[in-house]
Amino acid sequence: MNKISLNFLVKNRYLTDRFLFRTYAVSSEDIEKIRKFKEDRKKNFEDPLRTFNAIKDEFGRYKKGQFKLPPLKVPLYSEYVVIGGGIMGSSIAYSLKNRAPDSFEVMVIERDPKYTRASTTLSVGGIRQQYSLEENIKLSMYSAEFLRNVKQHLSVLDDDPPDIQFQPQGYLFLATEAGEEQMLKNHKLQKGLGAKVELMKPNHLKKKFPWMNTDGIALGSYGYENEGWFDPWALLSAFKRKAISLGTTYVHGEVIGFEIEKYLPVKGEDSVPELRSNFLYLKDELGDIHCVEFGYLVIAGGAYSSDIARLLHIGEGPGLLSVPIPVEPRKRYVYVFNCPTGPGIDMPLLIDPSGVYVRREGLGGKYICGRSPAPNEEPDTSNLEVDYNFFESHVWPTLCQRIPLFECIKHSDNSKVSSAWAGFYDYNTFDQNAIFGPHPYFNNVFLATGFSDHGIQMAPAVGRAMMELLIDKCYITIDLSKFHLNRVYQEKPLYEQHIV
Ligand SMILES: Cc1cc2nc3c(=O)[nH]c(=O)nc-3n(C[C@H](O)[C@H](O)[C@H](O)COP(=O)(O)OP(=O)(O)OC[C@H]3O[C@@H](n4cnc5c(N)ncnc54)[C@H](O)[C@@H]3O)c2cc1C
């Protein structure tokens, strides 16, 4: 009897016999589906005649020399299961498989393989070294090096090498007098870590960027290497394709619940029962339920990671389960406009002290821009509609004041904005920084989420860090222990000053 059918008979019997504690699922409809799925499974395996016939079938096949069953639509078991096939999940899967392609199974579960609402594909794909935290600077510098050699890392035999359309161009952060001290502090840290950044006084800025109005600016910080932007879709596709070529299984489905077992960690009547989980339920594109057994679980569900964690009772139980993952979707608009007489090719990605950012898009006089809303202006996240008034009231005035050449779009034929889109930040409401590493309650559950505005650029380094944590059981390349969930329990936020 081959391995698959053995798994099928043994593991599912085990499941229905032992794991009937409670299923946490998203909606009452899903709970009902899971209940029915379990009931059917139980019936099948409790029926000795069915089991006998299944074994008989197997031996029949074996006798006919048919040693392999057709592959299952959803494998029953995977040592590592990653929920979310965006840039984080795909980079983690790639790093795991790249380390040891034949040693274990890796499965990525993604509910929307077209990525219509994923942060990754709706991002603007920028990379910079200018952060205020050592970890973020290191993650970004590692990723820049990875992207420089992306063809070497992510090429797949007999396929064209990936082309992520990398545009090397520095970020220019501008500070008023109030922000000068922080900028000097950040600069010292960045330089100490080897980042290629320089500070510029207003007269220097004016010389280098004559189109800029430096009124109110005390200092600028410009990155002259390791910064720029790339095509997010191309990078995601490259990670995914490479991960698959190394043996990762991508499954189209939505994780809707976990089978949770209650057990006594220490023998004795007084010990408190703990929960653990090694089984998840997913709903495929036809609405059918599948059960997957896992050894380790990585939650990389972007803006929806907290919802996935809740299925494991995280944020809804006592003690260590009482703290939810502080990540939620926050809508951000990106506006595109034409200005053929704008600053042109040498323009850096400029970030005004107000938070308005702008960069060129391509070489034909197009620009993209945006700004994060103030906390009291956060838009509705139930849809991805764009608020064009936000551009008029919160972006356009600053843009024109800082770069008077952009006045030209006022006179363009139609509206100022030629197109626009919205996406969700995987926003960490606690301190706008990554929530990474092991969950303190479940020793087989890990998190990679909450990067807010800077996830896509850090994905190569984050994938590697997760691989080290899972396989080596410690950090080897970059220590990310400051990003563990512990800081949320201890109420010690780790603020990144440079969130755009
Ligand atoms: C407008 C905008 C601009 C940005 N600009 C930048 C930038 O310049 N530089 C930068 O570094 N970052 C930027 N970001 C942030 C960056 O895009 C994100 O931090 C990063 O893409 C997060 O990747 P992810 O894989 O965690 O999330 P996602 O890409 O959202 O992937 C998570 C996936 O999980 C899946 N999923 C969720 N729940 C389930 C479930 N229950 N079952 C199965 N699948 C599930 C989702 O379908 C989704 O595809 C920007 C974001 C936005 C919105």
Automatic annotation (TrEMBL):
Keywords, ordered alphabetically? Oxidoreductase
Residue limits of the FAD dependent oxidoreductase domain? 80-469
Pfam families recorded: DAO
UniProt keyword annotation of Amino-acid biosynthesis present: no
Q: Matching SUPFAM superfamilies, A to Z? A: FAD/NAD(P)-binding domain (SSF51905)
Molecular function terms in GO for this entry? Answer: oxidoreductase activity
- Output the GO biological process annotations, alphabetical, semicolon-separated: mitochondrial respiratory chain complex I assembly
Which is a Gene Ontology cellular component entry for this protein?
Answer: mitochondrion
| Function in brief | Required for the assembly of the mitochondrial membrane respiratory chain NADH dehydrogenase (Complex I). Involved in mid-late stages of complex I assembly.
- Protein known as: FAD-dependent oxidoreductase domain-containing protein 1
Organism (species): Trichonephila clavata
Q: Give the encoding gene's name.
A: foxred1
